[in-house]
Amino acid sequence: MAQQLHERIQSSSMDMKLDALKDLANSSRDITFAQEFINLDGISLLTQMVESGTDFGDLLSFTLTAFVELMDHGIVSWDTFSVAFIKKIASYVCKAAMDTAVLQRSLAILESMVLNSQDLYQKVAQEITIGQLIPHLQGTDQDIQTYTIAVINALFLKAPEEKRQVHAMFSICLKFSFSLVCQNVIRSNKPINDEMAHQLYVLQVLTFNLLEDRMMTKMDPQDQAQRDIIFELRRIAFDVECDSNNSGSIENWSNHVNPAVDFTQIPPGMLALDNMLYFARHHQDAYIRIVLENSSREDKHECPFGRSSIELTKMLCEILKVGELPSENCHDFHPMFFTHDRSFEEFFCICIQLLNKTWKEMRATSEDFNKVMQVVKEQITRALTIKPNSLDQFKSRLQNLSYTEILKLRQSERMNQEDFQSRPILELREKIQPEIMELIKQQRLNRLCEGTCFRKISSRRRQDKFWYCRLSPNHKVLHYGDLEESPQGEVPHDSLQDKLPVADIKAVVTGKDCPHMKEKGALKQNKELLELAFSVLYESDEYLNFIYCVWTDGLNALLGKEMTSEFTRSDMDTLLNMEMKLRLLDLENIQIPEVPPPIPKEPSNYDFVYDCN
Questions:
Q1: Which residues, if any, are the signal sequence (predicted)?
Q2: Dihedral sign, Cα of residue 32, residue 35, residue 38, residue 40
Q3: How remote is the C-alpha of 146 from its chain's centroid?
Q4: Cβ atoms 453, 483 nearer than 8 A
Q5: Which stretch of 179-188, 460-469, 483-492 has the lowest confidence by average pLDDT?
Q6: What are the backbone angles phi and psi of residue 9, rounded to the nearest 5°?
Q7: C-alpha angle with apex 575: 571 to 578, nearest 5 degrees?
Q8: Helix (H/G/I), strand (E/B), else coil: 545
Q9: What does the pLDDT look like over 411-422, one tens digit per residue?
Q10: How deeply is 243 buried, as exposed, middle or buried, from its count of CB atoms within 10 A (0-12, 13-18, 19+)?
Q11: Could you give the 3-state DSSP secondary structure of residue 278?
């Protein structure tokens, strides 16, 4: 097969060549085939086809796909490729309009080149710039965005130390947001040129202040810049000038003497302070409200804004794996981070308001700080599972995840976890089930004893006539009779002229089997009644016709038959789950054994028994 495909991909017929490349792309996943094709110098043939530049569209797409699949086996070294091949692959990435499949494969090839060879990194870095990669993040194709960020991360990991600061800044930008320049380009529909790319670089340096470098480098605790930001936060909250030598804390920092020390822990480092300043400046009303309402409280329920912001930033870094190396096993993609210039800071602003709201719902004190953070983390991770497309959608999802709702979800999940599928729990459910079924049975019979007014059903039309039926208290006789109008309450037994002994009932039929539903006219005009209809068959093949489902259960229970209606199943699930929760309430956080404890051996004697004589 390798020999045949090697010949077919060189065919002069475009159709035959396309079919051959399709087969090659599929077959190259198999390592045995890949080894044979590579032995035929197939990799060199594919690179020559790419360098020639004669193929495009599907031909080029399948060529690159086959190349990627073959190289993934690790048989051929990446150092063997020429500068011409690298330039050609880079040109596909740099083009403004390129086939999506070709662009995706080209980005994958560039990432592998950078990661697998330091020499190729130098060559790729000369052909690709950050400004040329940014436009690929502006589209809506998730794969293209993911592969683009993968190339950025690869360039950062392989960059020399002196260049990492610049790459780190762009890595933060590309993970968390679009730049202001990109937003302007989107609005104007103009392509990014070198001048715009340079503006992007300058703007991002000024805007993000090299946040990644701050996170990775411990700052001097006495750094005046940190202290100035803290005093700026206080000035915004209270609209007063603070003494720059006063290091006291009204935001409840962990270190009350020198709050700047709180930002030396990595992560979150200075990123937490930057988030707080962004929140204070861009969401000033919410910031002032949170600080003032917690600073003026006389009880012990104030939420420490400073400490909360630091821990929240650290938590967000953990959730989004900020600062960790890229992982091939992680496929989480959050499109909302591509919808705002400062999406991570906006993400923080939403979450810090959530934290304050949850704190109040839990009526927490400083001793409950860790419990609150656990609940907030659960709220955030649950909201992220739906992969919101925008920050507003994420915020709306959080509004439905209050502390009360989290408790309900935890309880529901606890009922479905493995402990509740264990043998002791299942045995308990089986033991309780007959009691619950008896309870439902008694409720149905009580309903029959109360009686019900039914509307008479005609095959031609619905008539405004009624009849009433009820079960005697001793459960032996059905009393029924016609009524002129619907009664306001119960109808006494003695006013119902007809009787039907329960012992005479032969069967209860439902749905289409009922006589009053078999008639063509009735079935056509009363389809909505079909599921509720039932009839009682008694002596001489006569029927008593009903339209009411609860009575079906009651009559079956009266006759000693199984109650099979959907209402019975629903009531059983509800009551059984409630009873299980009540009985297991005292066993929270206690491991339930799979098997009962062993019965101890009998004692050697019973002399310890008290002698009543």
A1: none
A2: negative
A3: 19
A4: yes
A5: 179-188
A6: -70, -10
A7: 145
A8: strand
A9: 777 666 555 667
A10: exposed
A11: helix
